[in-house]
Amino acid sequence: MQPGSAEEEWREDCAPRRVLDLFTTKWTSMVLHTLHARHGGAARTGVLQRSLPGISKKMLIQTLREMAESGLVTRHVQGTVPPAVEYRLSALGQRFVEPVELLYAWGRANAEALDQLGSRPTSRRG
Question: What is the separation, in whole angstroms, between the first and last Cα of the chain?
Fold first, then answer.
């Protein structure tokens, strides 16, 4: 297979598919956006949960752990009693926020187009 060939561009591990994998779970992009747009890149777990209506504590913690494992955020435990945990966007997370913010801006600018979409079985919108 030649580099840049059509077959290579659409392999399962190609760059576009890997980027889109970031959006397969809605909470990853929402946590990136919330950390960046509402909290200056860093927030404690409870603050994030209050900023993300609809996410359970279990789902938030699971998402943050996955994001830390993949390098999008870093976890910082403060030496207080009880320990306070803060999550911060890593340098890699800062890079991934860019396309997330572009999509969020597009969504805000094109709300009427989104309203025209038919309902999806997994959608909570009525």
Answer: 46
What is the identity of the amino acid at 70? S
- pLDDT tens, residue by residue, 68-79: 999 999 999 988
pTM above 0.70, yes or no: yes
Q: What is the residue type of 34?
A: T
Amino acid code (one letter) for 122: T
Q: Residue 73 in contact with residue 29, Cβ under 8 Å?
A: no
Burial class (CB in 10 A: 0-12, 13-18, 19+), 100: buried
Q: Alpha carbon of 55 to those of 20, 22, 51, 63, 90: distances in Å?
A: 21, 17, 9, 10, 22
